[in-house]
Design a protein that fits this description.
Blueprint (H helix, E strand, L loop, with lengths): L14 E3 L5 E8 L3 E9 L4 E2 L2 E2 L2 E4 L1 E5 L3 E8 L6 E9 L4 E5 L2 E3 L10 E3 L19 E4 L34 H6 L1 H7 L3 E4 L3 E2 L10 E5 L6 H13 L3 E6 L9 H9 L41 H18 L3 E4 L7 H14 L4 E4 L16 E2 L2 H12 L5 H12 L4 H4 L3 E2 L9 H4 L4 H13 L3 E5 L27 H16 L8 E5 L6 E6 L3 E7 L6 E2 L6 E5 L5 E2 L4 E7 L1
Parallel strand pairs: 13-14, 13-22, 14-17, 17-18, 18-19, 19-20, 21-22
Antiparallel strand pairs: 1-2, 2-8, 3-6, 3-9, 4-5, 7-8, 9-10, 9-12, 10-11, 15-16, 23-24, 24-25, 25-29, 26-28, 27-29
Pfam families: Alpha-amylase, Alpha-amylase_N
Keywords: Glycosidase, Hydrolase
Protein name: Alpha-glycosidase
Length: 572
């Protein structure tokens, strides 16, 4: 066996407490290098004479790529503590013992050679709200969802859907409009709403906040927002707000004071000022979001800034009973601040959901002391590249998903915020080249994959639009112009997600090898398994004759038409 390819560390995604009794241990090896993997473990103090007492149990292979295999052991540590190692047996009978201090030809007699899980403290482990795993989210860009109170619309707002959407367009969408649309959302089946920012701001997108304690007057007031939250909760719908703590808006009062008083401003250390006088052109001499001079970066290492933002974060939970915070540009804010943020909001409401906007590997934020989840951009990127662009083949796609399933601890994956499109991307139908059939395949995978799925407003009725601002068009309320068949398909997925255990986070996800171009995977529980078959090509595919109940299908025989799908339920 190739010993250099064997890898495990007793931290992060390789060793973690999954629940209050079970520890998961993940080992990585060269692909097809080990015929069998076993875990050796025991209490580090359990000795007879000078012999350590341990047990050996088999370890399941949970994923494979063309280069590596993944194995996962699920054990209850004796007396909440343990030392452990791995025994690998090659196809030629070779045995390798992989321990913290290297590889051995036989089990080491020195307890210090083994990996150590010193003591299992559940409060040190990752914990996230259970309700999230059963939530289907709906993202709303408030200015474009529905105009419920025209009297508070901006003066330059135009009629709904009129003209070309620009970065400065206003149409008058507001919070009352969301209240008016709750019947529609409840009928769709969603049970969580994620709002892009609703706080006072001069823009239509509100990512340049000027008052974190006030609802933007063009959206409504605090009484309206309170009614909205209460109306959502009465229908079993959770509410998550967007927090923009990386930067403020240009008109934010502390920054205006810096502009006015320059170096004498008592707020100069609230921001990252390079020198004075302040200049905005051609490039700002202070740190910003990107190089946008109207979005000065907040100094979250400053105690006054910390206190201000932490008070804001608690205020909306305490007074309005919101259920979650989505954190904008979360990876550019220091870790110490996010740890304080978590303690602050969880201290008010323990099951608040915290989601960070991070577009890359996010393990350093997901250790249990900062975020509950991140937005799962790697998932949608792989899906689009495989099904729409066809820039990666089936094997590459499967390897990316296998890697993603092992990138984080299992319970982290179960809480990830899974999107297909958002206000920061083109709309899903546009991404698929205006193909409803391809979009359905993407939705099917999203709703059967571990995590918490989210629908971008209007995507469920086939709205189109390129990169923002085009993707931020007005919600189409005229049923004659809605794709009602697509909406019904998504309603069905939401229903299956809620009623079929195989669609949920309780079922394990694995790929099934096939000799054709179909993508086949299964979700398995103790009593049943669901077989998912997707045809990502334009050509018909004959699929294997699986026995079971058809839960969802685009054809009734063994031929999957181009971009067809089939879900089969089998009893075990």
């Amino acid at each position: 066996m190739e010993k250099a390819m064997i890898f495990h560390r007793a931290i992060n995604e390789y060793a973690y407490g999954y629940d209050d009794q079970t520890i998961h241990l993940v080992l990585q090896t060269k692909h097809k290098d080990a015929e069998k993997v076993e875990l050796i473990y025991g209490d580090p103090y359990d000795f007879e004479q000078k012999t350590w007492n341990y047990v050996t149990v088999p370890v399941e292979r949970t994923g494979e790529t063309t280069t590596v295999d993944y194995y996962k052991a699920k054990v209850k540590p004796p007396n909440n503590r343990m030392r452990y190692g791995f025994k690998l047996t090659g196809y030629n009978g070779e045995e390798v013992f992989y321990l913290e201090r290297g590889t051995f030809a036989a089990p080491s007699k020195e307890i210090g050679d083994y990996f150590c899980f010193p003591y299992f403290h559940p409060n040190d482990e990752y914990q996230a709200p259970d309700w999230v795993k059963d939530t289907v989210w709906y993202q709303i860009f408030p200015e474009r969802f529905k105009n419920g109170e025209p009297s508070i619309s901006p003066r330059d707002a135009v009629a709904w859907e009129e003209g070309v959407v620009t970065p400065k367009s206003y149409y008058g969408g507001d919070l009352q409009g969301v209240i008016d649309g709750l019947d529609y959302l409840e009928d769709l089946g969603i049970n969580g709403i994620y709002f892009t920012p609703i706080f006072k701001s001069p823009s239509n997108h509100k990512y340049d906040t000027i008052d974190y304690y006030e609802i933007d007057p063009h959206f409504g007031d605090k009484k309206t927002f309170k009614r909205l939250v209460e109306a959502c909760h009465s229908r079993g719908i959770r509410v998550m707000l967007d927090a923009v703590f990386n930067h403020s808006g240009y008109e934010f009062e502390p920054f205006q004071d810096v502009l006015k008083n320059e170096q004498a401003s008592k707020y100069k250390d609230w921001f990252h000022m390079h020198d004075f006088p302040v200049q905005t052109e051609p490039k700002p001499n202070y740190e910003t979001f990107g190089f946008v001079s109207r979005m000065p970066k907040l100094n979250t290492q400053n105690k006054e800034v910390q206190n201000y933002l932490l008070d804001v974060s608690k205020y909306w939970v305490e007074v309005f009973d919101i259920d979650g915070w989505r954190l904008d540009v979360a990876n550019e804010v220091d870790h110490r601040f996010w740890r304080k943020f978590r303690d602050a909001v969880k201290g008010v409401k323990e099951d608040v959901y915290i989601v960070g906007e991070v577009w890359h590997d996010s393990m350093s934020w997901l250790r249990g002391d900062e975020f509950d989840a991140v937005m799962n951009y790697p998932l949608v990127d792989s899906l689009i590249r495989y099904i729409e662009e066809q820039s990666i083949d089936k094997q590459t796609f499967k390897e990316r998903i296998v890697h993603l399933l092992h990138m984080y601890p299992q319970h982290v994956t179960e809480h990830l915020f899974n999107i297909l499109a958002s206000h920061d991307t083109a709309r899903l139908i546009t991404q698929t080249g205006d193909s409803i059939d391809k979009a359905k395949l993407l939705y099917l995978f999203q709703f059967s994959y571990p995590g918490s799925p989210c629908i971008y407003y209007g995507d469920e009725i086939g709205m189109v639009g390129g990169e923002e601002p085009e993707s931020r068009g007005c919600m189409i309320w005229d049923k004659e112009r809605q794709d009602l068949e697509l909406r019904t398909f998504i309603q069905t997925l939401i229903h299956l997600r809620k009623t079929e255990t195989g669609f949920s986070n309780e079922a394990t996800f694995t790929f099934v090898e096939t000799s054709d171009e179909s993508l086949t995977y299964q979700k398995e529980t103790t009593n049943e398994q669901l077989i998912f078959i997707i045809n990502p090509t334009a050509e018909p595919i004959r699929v294997s004759d699986y026995k079971g109940d058809l839960l969802l299908y685009s054809t009734e025989d063994q031929i999957l038409n181009g971009y067809g799908y089939c879900v089969i339920k089998q009893e075990k």
